[in-house]
Design a protein that fits this description.
By secondary structure, the chain is of the alpha+beta class. Helices cover 31% and strands 40% of the residues. Strands 1, 2, 3, 4, 5, 6, 7 and 8 form an 8-stranded antiparallel beta sheet that branches. Strand 3 and strand 4 form a beta hairpin. The longest helix has 22 residues. The radius of gyration is 14 Å and the shape is globular.
Length: 143
Amino acid sequence: MKLDQFKPLTIYTIYIASTPEKVWEALTSAEFSRKYFSGFAVEMEPKLGGTFIVRAPDGSEHISGEVFEYDPPKKLTVSWNVNWPDLVAKLGATLVTSEIEPAGEAVRLTMSERHDRELGDDILEGGRTGWPAILSGLKSLLE
């Protein structure tokens, strides 16, 4: 997969009164993610090429993917394949990148969702509704 063929269609930036290490742990830990991600658990192999899974509260595999960029505690890029066949066919390949940067006494977290094709707002609506809630929960948990 060529990362440079993916164009960002959704970008969010949030400032969190925390450290890069704590934000990284929250993004990559099943224990932390359950607390801010509506009970969903992020499970990943911490390495390039590792597996990336988001499990629903019932334990089912909601999202599957692979780790494409892994630079703790600065940058993480994973493929994000929602396990809904109709949606996956419309979305195509999706990459989600989290970039963590110190910003004074806080951390600037920039999350981008990139796609290998142009998509309409009707297809992107779910992510554009979900990401603000997820990131807000993350901020509340860490602060």
